[in-house]
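ARCHIVE CARD
CATEGORY: sequence design from structure
SOURCE FIELD: tokenized fold
FIELD CONTENT:
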């Protein structure tokens, strides 16, 4: 019989979305058995709403529960590495919100722990899931899209002072970064998911919108390993919130929907070079199975890999690639230089990108 995995969620902020969108639509696959949060009022409110009986304010108690199969970490960024290592040491499977860790050195520490762990680790990158991004990925992987030329990635969101009226947001020590870390990291992962790894970066960052420590505006020029040129821009001062990818290939141009928090949804604009290419694309995507969006799709894919004993659909290698790009952007801004990837252990920001 297929296994039904018991989940313990630590952090009831975004953890609530993991439940509502990710686990509860798959009640045959998952049971959220325990919730943990330092804020007892929020903990009880969320637990009552979703009918979760077991609740605690201590993450150690969740780690020690023998019947829990998966620890889902939804805490502020600076706490992630410690909780991941603790959960892996306890023999659990681990799901962790972005950013996975607070440095490339910490990602490598986590990857070493994975090598001997009983459980597996899946970082959260839910923007990869949706009909639009799935079709684009399938067309690109088939070779039909042809040579990649150029692209744009825009994260134009809005955050005001009220958002930062919080003990951990907007601070290097606790949030670990600004718009790059907490907001644009999703679209930038989607970019590399479709266009491949980054080779070189030149970037500028600034704090222009709110009175915070971290950046809230970024402009970056990327050279991809495949030769394509990409511009990535993000701000938290946009009066209309959108997330947008536009990618130009030899045989097709893709443009995502503009929904700020679900740009992977369909339908994307898929503009073929000619009628013949259009017919081939239509035939290619016609038989594609449906895919869940956001957390729904990622948790469904995670379950399949758990049952088959395969690597998770999103891995710590993906998180490393994401944080390597972020590190390069910060270093380019700080040094006013063109930065080559990969970022090695000898790099001055390998152990931390924070000032």
């Amino acid at each position: 019989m297929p296994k039904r995995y018991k989940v313990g969620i630590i952090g009831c902020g975004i953890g609530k979305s993991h439940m509502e969108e990710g686990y509860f639509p798959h009640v045959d696959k998952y049971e959220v058995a325990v919730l943990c949060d330092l804020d007892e009022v929020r903990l009880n409110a969320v637990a009552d709403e979703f009918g979760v009986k077991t609740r605690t304010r201590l993450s150690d108690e969740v780690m020690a529960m023998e019947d829990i199969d998966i620890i889902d970490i939804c805490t502020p960024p600076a706490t992630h590495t410690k909780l991941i290592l603790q959960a892996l040491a306890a023999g659990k499977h681990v799901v962790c919100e972005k950013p996975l860790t607070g440095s490339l050195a910490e990602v490598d520490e986590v990857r070493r722990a994975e090598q001997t762990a009983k459980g597996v680790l899946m970082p959260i990158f839910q923007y990869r899931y949706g009909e639009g991004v799935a079709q684009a990925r399938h067309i690109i992987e088939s070779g039909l899209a042809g040579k990649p030329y150029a692209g744009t990635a825009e994260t134009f969101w809005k955050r005001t002072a009220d958002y930062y009226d919080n003990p951990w947001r907007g601070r290097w020590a606790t949030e670990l970064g600004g718009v790059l870390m907490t907001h644009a990291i999703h679209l930038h992962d989607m970019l590399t998911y479709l266009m491949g790894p980054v080779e070189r970066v030149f970037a500028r960052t600034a704090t222009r919108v709110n009175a915070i420590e971290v950046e809230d505006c970024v402009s970056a020029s990327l050279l991809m390993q495949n030769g394509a040129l990409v511009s990535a821009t993000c701000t938290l001062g946009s009066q209309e919130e959108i997330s947008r990818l536009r990618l130009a290939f030899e045989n097709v141009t893709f443009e995502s929907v503009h929904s700020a928090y679900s740009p992977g949804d369909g339908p994307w604009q898929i503009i073929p070079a000619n009628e013949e290419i259009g017919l081939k694309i239509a035939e290619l995507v016609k038989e594609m199975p449906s895919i869940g969006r956001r957390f729904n799709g990622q948790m469904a894919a995670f379950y399949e890999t758990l049952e088959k004993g395969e690597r998770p659909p999103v891995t710590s290698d993906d998180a490393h690639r994401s944080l390597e790009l972020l590190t390069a952007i910060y270093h380019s801004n700080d040094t006013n230089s063109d930065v080559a990837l990969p970022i090695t252990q000898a790099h001055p920001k390998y152990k931390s990108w924070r000032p």
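CARD ANNOTATION: The first helix runs from residue 14 to 23. The chain has a mean pLDDT of 97.
SHELF: design records, drawer C
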